[in-house]
Amino acid sequence: AAEVIAVCAQKGGVGKTTTSVNLAAGLALLEGKKVLLIDMDPQGHCALALHSELPAETPSRPLSEVLTRKLGDIHDIAFDTKIPNLRLCPSDKDLAQAESILAGRIGKEFLLRKALERARSFAEVVVIDCPPNLGTLTLNALLAADWLLAPCDMSTLSVEGVGDIFDTVETVRDTLGHHLSVLGVVRTRHDAKNKKVNDAVEQTLEQWSRHLVTTRIPVNTALAQAQLAGTPIFSHDPDCRGAKAYAEVVRDVASRVWGA
Amino acid sequence: AAEVIAVCAQKGGVGKTTTSVNLAAGLALLEGKKVLLIDMDPQGHCALALHSELPAETPSRPLSEVLTRKLGDIHDIAFDTKIPNLRLCPSDKDLAQAESILAGRIGKEFLLRKALERARSFAEVVVIDCPPNLGTLTLNALLAADWLLAPCDMSTLSVEGVGDIFDTVETVRDTLGHHLSVLGVVRTRHDAKNKKVNDAVEQTLEQWSRHLVTTRIPVNTALAQAQLAGTPIFSHDPDCRGAKAYAEVVRDVASRVWGA
Ligand SMILES: Nc1ncnc2c1ncn2[C@@H]1O[C@H](COP(=O)(O)OP(=O)(O)OP(=O)(O)O)[C@@H](O)[C@H]1O
Ligand SMILES: Nc1ncnc2c1ncn2[C@@H]1O[C@H](COP(=O)(O)OP(=O)(O)OP(=O)(O)O)[C@@H](O)[C@H]1O
Ligand SMILES: [Mg+2]
Ligand SMILES: [Mg+2]
Fold first, then answer.
1. In whole angstroms, what is the distance from residue A180 CA to residue B224 CA?
2. What pLDDT is recorded for position A169?
3. Which residues in chain A are contacts of B133 at CB distance < 8 A?
4. Mean of the per-residue pLDDT values for chain B?
5. SS3 label, residue B15
6. A vs B: CB pairs below 8 A
């Protein structure tokens, strides 16, 4: 059955989508894995960032319906992208109402996990992009996941939220009995020139030194240009610093998840 | 009574907090207005970004309680910062549960507006920082506000969400009868070197050309350093590009809200 990786951070704009899309595409293109990318963020930026790689038709039933009305499996609504080995289950705007619709419903955190039962037997790895909060949608991703990857850009405000995601992982383990392995914190939008703030952020991250992904993703405009072009960084500009850094993260994740 | 400005964007990391804090501080320091800054984002980054300017004691009752249990007025829980004319009503982590607690409660969108009745007679202007979504907390800010300021960084993913916030303003007008004036979209984290993506973003923003704040906020590491130092940009480095740009936005907002 597939390994499931949740890409989470409460802080907005730290590179959750950029990391989810390039990790998923990298595992498909560079490691030859059968990948399913799921977008649990109502903004729907996975589909936007891959707009040139999508087929003409869209899913028959939106993800919000599969989750809130327990209709069908994610495998039935995901579709092949033009990237070999990469399937996408996009989000939809109604997902934003899921929080209110599911409030108070027993077992609301387990809906995604149940809806992934068939998908897990077709894919080798599932990557889940999360919204910028620790609400019901992110909780669903954590409870469906085997691994956590937490992007954090090099700023005071972002690093402050890293502790919250680790607390949530502990709460999920203690109260809901679900054990998640931590792939780590991936430092994004790193600009070596910002020495003063970088040093402060690295100092704060020291407390999680066991959980830091070695490669830092540099600030690289090619990553934003790839999103404009609607394609992964490996297809847009394979020799740029962003592609090289994400390729290292892909290799690192693959060796941690499947063994060297 | 005070003018109320909501700073909203569904997209994460576009500079809502950086803009709220520096707009509020600028209106206090540069325009001499009595300012109340309210943090409606459970991340609580307004207090973090102003940590050097806070008094030793914290509010008696958290904002989440004032809103969900209708206890008291914002004026009673806000406190003076060390910046003359600037008071802060910080958020608290329990605010994150507000979405679920208030789901289905009639009039849940008007709670902040009701809790501001006294505060509006003490302050001349209220600035509200919002979380990265268009849920109940942001809706409360919009229904309490007279003006909308929408930060958008120069990226494909951010500009895509600008339409959503304008749609929400229209829905608030049509279904809840609340009219909001639009101060505009403030372009943030602008880096002139990223010509290709900038051009694409500016092209998309053309459709709202009536609603664009003239000044673009440049990428300026001093803004992140000011947050590390816990002080507004005007106190941290008044001659840097970030301070000059935010001072222009403060002047622009003041002339729009109170007349030249
Ligand atoms: N390493 C990088 N270099 C340059 N730009 C980057 C980099 N990583 C991300 N970006 C840009 O920063 C912005 C934020 O990234 P992204 O949207 O992936 O973050 P996110 O955490 O998914 O945001 P949200 O909280 O809104 O979901 C995007 O516009 C993206 O193009
Ligand atoms: N003009 C700028 N130049 C350099 N850095 C900036 C600029 N504006 C914002 N930043 C940095 O970008 C990050 C995102 O900004 P900020 O936290 O204000 O956005 P936000 O929209 O409030 O995020 P969230 O969606 O998490 O609430 C912060 O780390 C901040 O220091
Ligand atoms: Mg995202
Ligand atoms: Mg913020």
1. 33
2. 97
3. 42, 96, 131-133
4. 96
5. coil
6. 113
